[in-house]
């Protein structure tokens, strides 16, 4: 506790992470009990809160689950952080997984589609039977990579593509793939956590790319699997359908880590539940109305932010836990339609 208090002196306006906030709410006896516990993968309370202890203000959450059991074993810290971040009471929550029917996601009008520049859906999954990435040893990393590589054989039709191990990709090719937003960077937090797995970088990591480069899977980046479906148009139903088909195919080979209340479990408590992230780039015609638009987006549970290009904005879903995948996609898509319609009507 002293470490957090020293990093956040009361006479300074330092913003605490959520982990720091709720760590300080714990009684000394609770902290002592948590410090004595271990999960079946030997993850400790200190492992989970290390980022909060050593980095005072450069993170929102400050908490990582070194394996799926951490969410229960150390629930005294995880559950308050999750409820605060996701704005949902998980004590009476029952997680429901439902991709829904893609036929109910209709194309938008041509006028609206003109202002949609790109859509990108990402869903992360962690494989049952292993700890999370920071706790994996070299043999486990290689084992997971090989198992996933073999599973790609079951992907068919437009999902078929090529797997490339990160260690075999040249520096120039890596730069090119990152410029196209296809390849991942080394996680920024790897210096902040005691992560043995990152000592082996880039061993055990890789990327699967289909022939059209509109479906990608990252292997062992932050989580075991990061499914990405994308397109430079407004065909949300096609993008979402590719995502569903790929996840369901691989789910026949792997069991994903899941909790009855928290949904799908991953390294970060910010990315659990559906673990679904939608990013849509749109062009806005009336920047003078941007401040009212921010408030309008909040009502729709949509986050809006500037990109590096004039009048182009990135919109993403705020909610990942407490609703189904289909509900989140529909709300996001309906919200995009309302936002662009409002922009057009101001012309």
UniProtKB/TrEMBL annotation:
Q: Does the keyword Nucleotide-binding apply?
A: yes
Q: What is the protein name stated in its UniProt record?
A: Arginine kinase
Say which family it is in: Belongs to the ATP:guanido phosphotransferase family.
Q: Whose protein is this, by species? A: Rotaria socialis
Domain of life, per UniProt, equals Eukaryota
Provide the binding site for ATP.
118-122, 277-281, 300-305
Residues of the Phosphagen kinase N-terminal domain: 1-87
One family name in Pfam for this protein: ATP-gua_PtransN
């Amino acid at each position: 506790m002293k470490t957090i208090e020293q990093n956040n002196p009361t006479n300074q306006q330092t913003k605490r992470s959520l982990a720091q906030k709720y760590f300080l709410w714990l009684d000394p006896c609770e902290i002592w009990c948590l410090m004595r516990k271990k999960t079946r993968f030997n993850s400790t309370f200190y492992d989970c809160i290390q980022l909060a202890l050593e980095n005072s203000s450069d993170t929102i959450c400050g908490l990582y689950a070194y394996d799926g059991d951490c969410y229960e074993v150390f629930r005294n810290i995880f559950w308050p952080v999750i409820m605060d971040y996701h704005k949902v009471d998980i004590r009476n929550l029952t997680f429901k997984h439902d991709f829904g029917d893609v036929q109910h996601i209709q194309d938008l009008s041509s006028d609206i589609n003109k202002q949609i520049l790109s859509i990108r859906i990402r869903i992360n999954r962690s494989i049952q039977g292993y700890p999370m990435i920071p706790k994996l040893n070299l043999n486990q990393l290689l084992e997971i990579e090989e198992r996933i590589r073999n599973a790609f054989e079951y992907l068919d039709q437009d999902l078929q593509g090529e797997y490339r191990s990160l260690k075999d990709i040249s520096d120039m090719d890596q730069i090119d793939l990152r410029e196209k937003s296809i390849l991942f960077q080394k996680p920024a937090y790897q210096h902040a956590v005691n992560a043995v797995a990152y000592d082996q970088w880039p061993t055990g990591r890789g990327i699967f790319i289909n022939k059209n480069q509109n479906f990608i899977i990252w292997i062992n980046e932050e989580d075991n699997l990061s499914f990405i479906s994308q397109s430079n148009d407004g065909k949300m139903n096609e993008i979402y359908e590719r995502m569903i088909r790929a996840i369901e195919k691989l789910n026949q080979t792997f069991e994903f880590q899941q909790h009855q209340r928290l949904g799908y479990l991953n390294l970060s408590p910010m990315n659990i539940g559906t673990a679904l992230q939608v990013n849509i780039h749109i062009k806005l015609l009336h920047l003078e109305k941007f401040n009212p638009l921010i408030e309008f987006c909040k009502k729709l549970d949509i986050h809006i932010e500037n990109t590096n290009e004039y009048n182009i904005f990135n919109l993403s879903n705020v909610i990942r836990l407490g609703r189904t995948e289909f509900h989140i996609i529909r709300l996001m898509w309906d919200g995009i339609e309302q936002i662009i319609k409002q922009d057009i009507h101001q012309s």
